[in-house]
Amino acid sequence: MSASLPDPDERLEPPGPGSVWAAPGMVALAILAFCGFSGYAALLPVAPLWAVRGGADSGGAGMVNFVLLGTTVATQFAVPWAIGRWGWGWVLSLGMVFLGVPSLLHIATDTLGPLLGLSAVRGLGFGILTVAANAAAVLLVEPGRRGAAVGAYSAALSFPLVLVMPLGGWIAEDVAFWPVFLVAALPLAGIPACLAVARHLPSRATHAPGHHAAEEEAATSRTYLALLRPTLILLGVTFAGGSVITFAPQMVAVPWLSAAGLFAVGLCAAISRWQVGAASDRIGTGRLVPVAVVVTVVVLAALAWLVRTPVATGDATAWIAVCALVGLCYGTLQTLTMLQAFEAAGPRRVGTASAVWNAGFDTGTATGSLLVGWVAVGAGFGWGMALTAGLCLLTLPLALVRARR
């Protein structure tokens, strides 16, 4: 794709002084992220449960999120082009509609086929949200505060993962599914924030190739190659994270353990995503990534041992502690690899970096949901999570290689 989002120096307004939240549009971006990711988080563990309620096995349940995130990835590379054609406000608002309306339609059916169709439409919306909002966070501040901006934006989107995702499975199983479907429609309430963010972003979202089309295409190809290393590292951790989020309700013997574990994952991921962004501005991502990968492998191995059988209340402390460590690793590597992607792509390829990073994130999450579900059908979740630890370990050599600047 030759289209890319603009150089951050082309912002219409300079950022405000002091806190990164003072930059024009950052608060509206936080509201947008909270509403949009609430719709995503509410159904991520609940839609597979709804499919199981309708008669699907764990393999079919894994397909629900696989289709969601597969469609997300297919959409993400077209988002910079769409913003260039229709503008930030229209594209972001359309993404919220695609996320919110199908969530309400879950009330009408628990049959796997229609659920896969609804997941596909939600994937269109989530693909728009992830690429456009990530890029907006970078464009609203100067490059020297990019880590802080990414951390702040990540904290805003993490609150739904902390509050909404853990409670969703618990409410669905112990109360009813329909309240979760109503919460999942919250993206519709975020449409005004989309328009507010758009007012502080460049009116032009692409660099027109003009008579330099061949050079533009070559530069984009080089950008994709530069983005390969952080994307593969990201795949390793999201493969595991997607598995935990999707199958936590099925890894435990009682519903409240699922809620507690997912709360620990979300809270610790939010904290680490927020704090590591500002830290990377001072220390650099190259020093932090290898340590994070090693710790992640150890934590996933411990989780694999713990979930060999459904976790009972006697192992509640160990379950919550391991889930908290999974969240720390999950959030840390998300922020670090995102920043590595922006560094590798350069200021004129912000949109491309955002699209590739998000595609890697969602590919890892979708593949983890699908393959771990298949492994669990025959061998159990212990072997499934051991597979994720092994795949994460394979990314360590990439983490140890210093990127060419």
How does this model look, in words?
By secondary structure, this protein is mostly helical. The chain is built from 17 helices and no strands. The longest helix is centred in the last third of the chain and has 30 residues, at 316-345. The two termini are 23 Å apart.
Q: How would you sum up this structure in a few lines?
A:
It contains 17 helices and no strands. The chain is mainly α.
Largest sheet: none
Strands, count: 0
Overall outline: globular
The percent of residues in helical segments reads: over 70%
Strand percentage lies at: under 5%
Termini separation comes to: 23 Å
Based on the structure, what is the oligomeric state of the protein chains?
A: single chain
Q: Structural class of the secondary elements?
A: mainly alpha
The value of Rg in angstroms is 20 Å
What is the residue-averaged pLDDT? 82
Low-confidence runs of at least 5 consecutive residues: 1-16, 204-211
Query: Number of helical segments?
Result: 17
Order of H and E elements: HHHHHHHHHHHHHHHHH
